[in-house]
Backbone:
């Protein structure tokens, strides 16, 4: 599999040949996703999303746009903020203008990133694939899921348990109340059953 840096460079080269700009944009991504406060929302999360999306590439209409949405969907991440997605979506608009993207593609990527806030099923299937890749960790094996929950807890370490646990339960309850956690047939088949089991197990630990 292509590494993240190569993938980003190849995507950018479709629009602009300025190697210095591309390099500086990549370094910005690398630095943001490597911040000390990030334990889960890191470069590993992006790697995982791309490994999932590569498997369904033929189902995605505009893989380049989806790729930019993956790179930038968590570019701004602060555990105490409720507007990370909006900030990330605004952030990417400026970047895409520098890369000479046309307005409709900028709007599409902006919309895709905003969709990661509520994870509601979309009429746009590319968005559904992005959302499913973002949540794919929920359906992984027990050990991987447990590791994920520990990393999330570290990101929210500013909150004591009496605040964290009810908040986390609310998030998990939201996923269980969705008609289905995953929006696309391929992800549903692959992860839905395990995701629900994982979430229910975690909720018991949060009592």
Residues:
């Amino acid at each position: 599999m292509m590494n993240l840096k190569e993938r980003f460079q190849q995507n950018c080269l479709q629009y602009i040949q300025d190697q210095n700009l591309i390099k500086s944009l990549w370094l910005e991504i690398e630095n943001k996703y490597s911040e000390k406060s990030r334990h889960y929302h890191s470069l590993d999360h992006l790697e995982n999303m791309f490994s999932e999306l590569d498997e369904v590439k033929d189902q995605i209409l505009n893989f380049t746009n989806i790729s930019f949405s993956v790179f930038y969907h968590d570019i701004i991440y602060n555990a105490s903020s409720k507007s990370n997605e909006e900030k990330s979506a605004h952030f990417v608009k400026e970047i895409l203008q520098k890369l000479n993207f046309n307005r409709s593609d900028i709007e599409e990527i902006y919309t895709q990133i905003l969709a990661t806030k509520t994870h509601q099923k979309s009429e746009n299937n590319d968005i559904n694939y992005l959302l499913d890749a973002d949540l794919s960790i929920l359906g992984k094996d027990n050990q991987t899921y447990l590791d994920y929950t520990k990393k999330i807890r570290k990101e929210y370490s500013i909150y004591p348990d009496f605040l964290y646990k009810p908040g986390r339960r609310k998030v998990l309850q939201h996923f269980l109340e969705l008609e289905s956690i995953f929006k696309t047939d391929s992800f549903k088949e692959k992860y839905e059953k395990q995701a629900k089991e994982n979430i229910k197990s975690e909720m018991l630990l949060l009592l």
